[in-house]
Amino acid sequence: MTRFIHDQFAKDYLEQLLTPYGEVQAPKRVAGEVRQIDVYFIRTSQPTTIPETFRLLSQFTTTPALFEPFRNAASVTEICDCLLKLLELRSDLQRQANRNNTRIVESDIPKLWILTPTASVALLSGFGATTKVDYLPGVYFLAQHLRTAIVAIHQLPIIPETLWLRIIGRGNVQKRAIDELEALNPDNPFRLAALELLYNLRQNLQLNQNQDADDRELVMRLAPLYQQDREQAFKEGEQQGLQTGIQTGIQTGIQTGIQQGERLVVENLLKVRFGELDDELQAIIVPLLALSPEEFTPLLLQLSREELIARFR
Known about the structure:
Order of helices and strands: HEEEEHEHEHEEHHHHHHHH
Largest sheet: 6 strands, mixed
Radius of gyration: 22 Å
Number of domains: 2
Oligomer: single chain
Number of strands: 8
Helix content: 55-70%
Strand content: 5-15%
Structural class: alpha/beta
Distance between the termini: 32 Å
């Protein structure tokens, strides 16, 4: 159960990270025996420029990409299963090309990126995985025609360019990444999106009765950060309310500020999970605010867009 929670966090996190730059299918079914690719990414025809701090992400997405993240170190069997997904998808693309009397262009063939928190020397050598001079340490490539790389997250250098990957690492690697994330400018969009997904992970782990030591430490590490962000949102709303309170009374201003702070929390969570606030999402904000923060926060983190709209319409 714990592994499923972490795997779901990694998939949601990658989907959130990749969405601005192209089409993301998570999961993506492939032909043959029912298999699902964790995250399947296709770059848009007019791609958005990826920031320099995500240069490694830009390298990963020059072609269609399959991302397979693992909570625990990927085993030989699991890596072979990932390779099978890639080969089945490639066969499916070839069948489509044959039906349409077209040829597959090399740049249209997906590459597979296996994201594992650790990878032993024996595992890497067993797959003939080697580094490349134009990639950072920790990224190992299989033979050319396999179009696959194993990313050993614990070996990545601790630089801003790798932060987005180290967030889904494990143990001290992940804890240090969270420290770096916390130190980013509060208005940094990556910080906001990643923290909201980490809060979702925290909530799911708290509900799980079988936490391991790493999970308990992660929950404890995220707890004060979550509280700080909530208090900051409330403080911003309170300051706005206090300005109004000059005319309407200090007590009214404070109350207004608390309400505005809660509204900011709700709006930010909705934006991070579902993008821009359209009319349907705007319509459920007031009913949500009728609940206490302890009641509406887990609902916003756990329910899908359709479930939220159906519940509060």
